[in-house]
């Protein structure tokens, strides 16, 4: 009986320790996710949330999205640290003006057409049946106004609006 009590006591301590560890891991994961989690952002052919094509980033952009995690002359990025820009919001600039905006996994981006980051890939294709299949680094389905990319071939992982190349880019003749 004493051995049974010792075994039960040891088991209880182990389970308590595992529970505490899981709570700590969950709390830190939630806290880090909330540091970059953005509000719901409407995607249109000219904008994602407060970010507008052809314009400079307005003070409203920073009010809504907060301080960017990466800033250069050509890219401004909001997202979790160490993700290699696979999650979050990426804005490409030329001469200080926005020419490309992407919302990716982890961003609560949605479209009036019913699409949103994380919806099924089939929903993208049924909403835009005349889109063109593309192979490349990101674009898998292209329409005149949007570029869509899949995540693991099953869900929408990225919505991009704007030009893929800077306005100054000229095709060689």
Could you outline the blueprint of secondary structure elements for this entry?
Elements (H helix, E strand, L loop, with lengths): L1 H35 L4 E4 L2 E2 L2 E2 L6 H7 L4 E2 L3 E4 L10 E6 L2 E8 L4 E3 L9 H7 L4 E2 L7 E2 L3 E6 L3 E8 L11
Parallel strand pairs: 1-8
Antiparallel strand pairs: 1-2, 2-3, 4-5, 5-6, 6-7, 7-12, 9-10, 10-11, 11-12
Description:
- Helices cover 28% and strands 28% of the residues.
- The protein folds into two domains: 36 residues; 122 residues, protein yfey like fold (Sandwich).
- With 173 residues, it is α+β, with helices and mostly antiparallel strands.
- An eight-stranded antiparallel sheet has the order 4-5-6-7-12-11-10-9.
Structure at a glance:
With 173 residues, this protein is of the alpha+beta class. It has three helices and twelve strands, in the order H-E-E-E-H-E-E-E-E-E-H-E-E-E-E.
Task: State the domain count.
Answer: 2
In this structure, how is the largest beta sheet organized? Answer: 8 strands, antiparallel
Q: CATH topology of the largest domain, which one? A: protein yfey like fold
Strand order across the largest sheet? 4-5-6-7-12-11-10-9
CATH class category name of the largest domain:
Mainly Beta
- Stretches with pLDDT under 50, minimum 5 residues: 16-36
Computed CA radius of gyration, to the nearest angstrom: 22 Å
Gap from first CA to last CA? 89 Å
**Shape field:** globular
SS elements, strand count: 12
Class derived from helix and strand content: alpha+beta
Mean pLDDT: 81
